[in-house]
Amino acid sequence: QVQFVESGGGLVQPGGSLRLSCAASGSISGIATMAWYRQPPGQQRELVTYITRGGITYYPDSVSGRFTISRDNAKNTMSLQMNDLKPEDTAVYYCNIAGTPLPWGQGTQVTVSS
Questions:
Q1: Is 14 helix (H, G, I), strand (E, B) or coil?
Q2: CA dihedral sign, ordered 27, 31, 34, 38
Q3: Are 110 and 12 in contact (CB under 8 A)?
C-alpha cells in the first residue's frame, strides 16, 4: 500500500510563500486523482486542491490564484506552491488520494503569523 510523506512546512509571515512536497512510497502513475488536504487547529480536515493524472486541477475560492498543485508521476511526487499566505491557511497539510484516502501520513505544519 502506498504511503505518503509530506515536507516543506514552516512558519511564515502573511504574504509569504512556501512549497510543500509529497513523496509516495510507490507509484502514483496509476492514481487517477491526487489531493492536498489540510486540518486547521480545532477543525475538520478539508480538501485544499486536487490534480488528475492528466493534469486537470481544482481550487476552491479560498486558495484559487494563490496555490498551485503539481505532480510528477515519474518521480512519484507531488507539490503545492503556496503564495500570498494568510493566517487562515494555518493548518497541518497532508497529501493523499482524492475521495478515498489511504492511511494518513504525519503531515507538515504550516503556520502563517506575524
A1: coil
A2: negative
A3: yes
- Strand, helix or coil at 97? strand
- Tell me the C-alpha distance between 36 and 82, whole Å: 12
Query: What grid cell was written down for 69?
Result: 498543485
Q: Return the closest-CA partner of residue 78 out of 111, 43, 105, 39.
A: 105
The strand pair at 57-58 and 46-52 is best described as: antiparallel
The closest alpha carbon to 99, from 52, 56, 42, 43, belongs to 52
User: Position of cell 503564495?
Assistant: 83
Query: What pLDDT does residue 1 have?
Result: 85
Band of residue 105 on the pLDDT scale cut at 50, 70, 90 = very high
DSSP 102: -
